[in-house]
Amino acid sequence: MLTIKNLRVAVEGKEILKGINLEIKAGEVHAIMGPNGSGKSTLGNVLAGKEEYEILEGEVLYEGQDLLDLSAEDRSRMGLFLGFQYPVEIPGVPMVNFIKTSVNEHRKFKGLEPLTAGEFLKLMREKKELVHLDSQLTNRSVNEGFSGGEKKKNEIFQMAMLEPKLAILDETDSGLDIDALRVVSEGVNALKNPERSAIVITHYQRLLEYIVPDFVHVLYQGRIVKSAGKELALELEEKGYDWLKK
Ligand code: ADP
Ligand code: MG
Ligand code: MG
């Protein structure tokens, strides 16, 4: 599904990603862990198509296509989703309009008719229930005045509405209490199937008790310094990152 080859990326002239190699097959969940400032968000943002990054070298193939050549919109239409570490408030844009436009743009790309008002409301109700999102929130502007936890749940709600093939979740667990964490994880797990993959970026092992990864990678100073199975997350919880820094 996704192949990253020797990806080197700079921001404002500073090299942040220093040669990332990663292979993600359909159906797999990969966790990316690592200390603050390692480049985890940079990697997620580059994959999703955020501008301001300079690609110095390397290649990213998504379902055989050159991902870095595509606009962020096209990447989304092709099934890529990024849940932001810091979701943005968009005053004046009601959640309902935002998500309806997104869903119907995705449908158009697949050659499907837009959902009728009834179908859309039914889908929205179903997905809100999945993540226990307060029913009123979709009447407000995107993320405006949402609590930290509500913003994170809203990311998972949007993901559930769009049913991406490749979901990248950037520290969705940060700022969530244990109940919200469980709900969010259930939302992610509900999407799991053999055709869908996820990259779960997290600082802590806790989330990975609920979303069990097939592989765990440690990113440190712009490089993947260790890759292993899910047991690596437990080892990191116990020993921290210092042993890998050496
Ligand atoms: P992580 O998500 O692992 O905490 P980030 O990808 O956010 O790490 O950041 C990696 C490094 O890149 C940090 O040193 C950060 O300051 C720097 N960086 C990220 N984005 C920018 C930016 N837009 N401008 C300048 N430096 C940036
Ligand atoms: Mg960070
Ligand atoms: Mg980050």
From TrEMBL:
Alphabetized Pfam families for the sequence: ABC_tran
Gene Ontology molecular function: ATP binding; ATP hydrolysis activity
UniProt keyword annotation of ATP-binding present: yes
Protein name: Fe-S cluster assembly ATP-binding protein
Keywords from the UniProt entry: ATP-binding, Nucleotide-binding
Species annotation: Sunxiuqinia elliptica
Domain ABC transporter: 2-246
SMART domains assigned to the protein according to its UniProt record, in alphabetical order: AAA (SM00382)
Entry similarity comment: Belongs to the ABC transporter superfamily. Ycf16 family.
PROSITE patterns: ABC_TRANSPORTER_2 (PS50893)
